[in-house]
Amino acid sequence: MWRKWRKKKIVESKKISEELDGAKTVAIAGHVRPDGDCVGSCMAMMGYLKDNFKQLAEVDVYLEEIPDCFHILRGVDQINHSCEEEKTYDLFIALDCADKARLGGAVKYFDSAAHTLCYDHHISNPGFADKNYIYPDSSSTAEVIYHVMEDDKITKETAEALYTGLVHDTGIFQYSCTRPETLEIAANLLRKGIDGNYISDTTFSEKTYVQNQILGRALLESILVLDKTCIVSGVRQKDMGFYGVKATDLDGIVSQLRLTKGVETAIFLHELAPLTYKVSLRSKSYVDVSVIAAAFGGGGHVRAAGCTMHGTFHDVVNSLTEKIEIQMKEKAGA
Ligand SMILES: [Mn+2]
Predict the structure, then answer these.
(1) Is the same domain home to 46 and 135?
(2) H or E stretch including 321?
(3) Within this chain, do residues 200 and 249 fall inside the same structural domain, yes or no?
(4) How far is the CA of 121 from the centre of ligand 1 (A)?
(5) How many CB atoms are located within 10 Å of the residue 83 CB?
(6) What pTM value is reported for the model?
(7) Could you read off the pLDDT of 130-140 as tens digits, one per residue?
């Protein structure tokens, strides 16, 4: 079933107005540890539905705690961070979520909803909803859902949320997932009168003092392996305690590592617990890190992916570099 949906071109996906199908109550949720695309897409969808479909009695968003920088977006104060309440919805919309388990606590509303929809751009998404619109070539879920909205019904506030999603998943339109369509959408959103620079600076570029400190520490302690084509660094729990940083303060470190000249792949390990690491992987031009992350139970995109691994720092790095080396040898032999 999902394959049929997946094959559809984005221009052929129905507008969201046609998907509501008499629904009166809608729940929207993204993935655990929400990022800019996840928060932006959820806020944009909520805003668009509330602004244009007065017949909807309830439009509720469920997300875990969000980073402070996203508090500039309209509607974030209405996000439900708890999934305690027993409610059933006519329609559940999953956004930017590659698998059902990553919905976190909101999965119970997904399971009990009369109908479910999924909009996403993760290549690893198996299509877990009744209807799935998954476009791995899209830069972001914000890009996917822009196409199911009517441009003239997008308010300035919804445009700000969509733009945030684009900015975060493209690294301010720098990553290779940025395509002509992405910039066309960004242009349309800027025409709504939004302040694109302000959104990029406050939600993406700016770092707190401790974020810069931990970034500096990670860069200082990085090592080059695989004939200097792979850069590796990590942050241990005791370092996080020393600098007083949270997990979200580590966002962006792996991207900075990736920018090292001569490097194809960047590996960043965040120690979650003794012998347990959250692994972030990035590549520049040919290593498919989504395959490597998937081999260790994770997922993501061709140039950006992640997983959780167990073992010592060196064991984890060795397991990862072994897989990277296989791909590099294949490339060299090709
Ligand atoms: Mn995304």
Answers:
(1) yes
(2) helix 313-333
(3) no
(4) 7
(5) 18
(6) 0.82
(7) 999 999 999 99
Per DSSP, the residues of 83-106 read: --S----SEEEEES-SSGGGGGGG
> Are both 150 and 225 inside the same structural domain?
no
CB 69 within 8 A of CB 92: no
Rounded distance from Cα 169 to ligand 1 centre (Å):
6
Over residues 186-237, the pLDDT tens digits come to 999 999 999 999 999 999 999 999 999 999 999 999 999 999 999 999 999 9
Cα-based angle 132, 155, 206 (whole degrees, multiple of 5)? 85
Identify whether residues 77 and 168 lie together within a single domain.
yes
Domain end among 143, 177, 205? 205
21: Cβ–Cβ under 8 A, 6 or more apart, which residues?
91, 115
Q: Which domain holds residue 327?
A: 209-333
Q: What tokens does 326 get?
A: 């296989």
- 84 CA distance to ligand 1 centroid (A)? 26
Q: Which residues, including other chains, have CB under 8 Å from residue 140's CB and lie 6 or more apart?
A: 37, 41, 96, 121, 165, 166, 168, 169, 170, 177, 182
147 Cα to the center of ligand 1, angstroms: 15
